[in-house]
Write a structure and sequence with these properties.
single chain, 258 residues, alpha+beta, 6-stranded antiparallel β-sheet, 5 helices, elongated
Length: 258
Amino acid sequence: MKIAIYSNDRVPSGEAERLCAELSARGASAVCVKDPEALTGFDRIAVLGGDGTLLRVAKAARVPIVGVNYGRLGFLTEFERGEEEVVSLLLDGSCPTLTRTMLSVRIGGKEHLCLNELALLRRIAPDRSNRVEKISVAIDGCPAGDYVADGLIVATPTGSTAYSLSAGGSILMPDCAAFQLTPVCAFSLKSRPVVYSDRSALTFTLAASDELMVYGDGVFFTNIKVGDELTVRKAEQTAVFLTRDKRNFFPRLMQKLR
């Protein structure tokens, strides 16, 4: 079994090398990797870092991954630092896995992937008036309303416990075949989060003002202007996570979110 150990720059020196040595001592071919583009040709990947690091690797990887938390919350990571069980899990060819859906975001002919969420947010700058945006939404080509708000979030079940939850969205079980549309600080009390089938496609058009900022998993993609169209649907690619127990979603939720 060929295993990659990926770590970010905030992981203490020697931690990735120590894990690599332990895996090698138990017969695996383990390699420390620093570049996400180099994560090819492996059977499994261990990610040392926080949730942000795991999100980046999950979109680049095509094999099962497992996270060891060296960040703050570590909601997506399976282990905390110092837990030695990660070695056995990586070497267990029959351990349980969780498959997470992702969003495919198409803007101007270019595709972006999101594991947590897509966020459309009003641009804040000294030269702009402080006003909300008007965003038109269509689901499978049918008008689904105009949202006057600071922005909109499209969250996967994985991302339903992140930014969307902070904005008043619901928590979705990881295996739900659905996505969630959540307004950010909507101007109308009638604007509420909407859960829709992950077989549907959403189209967004900026109907008023001049510009929206587009982020995916906290990373800036681009700006869109009035008349620009952005389409969101379920991605063909999925993220696969190694886990100790498929049933630990709610215990983890109570532990991490207190």
